[in-house]
């Protein structure tokens, strides 16, 4: 367990063949009242394949990620897991949301490197990963001040939830949550004059970081319109 998130690394087929996915899908009674978010991640080779498919087939739906940065975050996450180091819940939530979105939107699979054996397996993984990502986001909201990764994960998950459930209360709650977090991080004032920004010392972002924040904010604005 690291930073309140308990992570197991299991191959997709191995996870689906064990009771782990069934317990997580129905809710683990032993975790009621605890502050632990329990998730499983695929091994690095499967994770790399999923991120590659996301970059090729999904990212155009919402241009809110800088993929080289996400690849580096994923590399760091798996390295931290292998060394037993502290991990950030927001990074886990973002990676899980990417995996869920990829699994749900995959076209008919070809090639020997496919992670999923059939469409039903992909949809089941999408459901499990989206549920786990929601759990991690809830934990992150209680234990961290919020981050751009939390917002990105929430936006991506809202698309997955919309496809699973439609225009439901959960989808609307996710959309509202992303907007609230964005305002808390002052994304709506990103390009305001420095002397008008809240606080005596506004944090300095890289050019890439500022551009991604702009894209996240204007994505939410445009979809709300």
UniProtKB/TrEMBL annotation:
Record-level GO BP terms: DNA-templated transcription
CDD domains named in the record: fungal_TF_MHR
Locations listed in the record: Nucleus
One Pfam family in the UniProt entry: Fungal_trans
GO cellular component: nucleus
Keyword ATP-binding among UniProt keywords: no
Transmembrane region(s): none
UniProt protein name: DNA, SC001
Species assigned in the record: Aspergillus oryzae (strain ATCC 42149 / RIB 40)
């Amino acid at each position: 367990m690291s930073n309140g998130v308990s992570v197991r690394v299991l191959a997709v087929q191995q996870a689906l063949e064990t009771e782990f996915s069934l317990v997580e899908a129905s809710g683990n009674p032993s975790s009621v009242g605890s502050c632990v978010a329990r998730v499983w991640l695929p091994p690095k080779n499967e994770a790399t394949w999923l991120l590659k498919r996301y970059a090729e087939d999904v990212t155009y739906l919402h241009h809110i990620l800088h993929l080289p940065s996400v690849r580096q975050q994923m590399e760091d996450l798996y390295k931290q897991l292998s060394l037993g180091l502290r991990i950030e819940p927001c990074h886990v939530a973002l990676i899980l949301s990417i995996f869920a979105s990829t699994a749900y939107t995959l076209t008919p699979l070809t090639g020997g490197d496919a992670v999923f054996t059939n469409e039903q397996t992909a949809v089941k993984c999408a459901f499990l990963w989206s549920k786990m990502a929601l759990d991690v986001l809830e934990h992150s909201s209680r234990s961290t001040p919020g981050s751009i990764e939390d917002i990105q994960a929430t936006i991506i998950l809202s698309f997955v939830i919309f496809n699973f459930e439609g225009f439901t209360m959960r989808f609307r709650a996710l959309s509202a949550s992303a907007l609230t977090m964005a305002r808390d991080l002052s994304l709506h004032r990103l390009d305001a004059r420095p002397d008008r920004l809240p606080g005596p010392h506004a944090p300095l972002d890289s050019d890439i970081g500022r551009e991604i924040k702009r894209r996240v904010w204007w994505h939410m604005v445009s979809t709300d319109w």
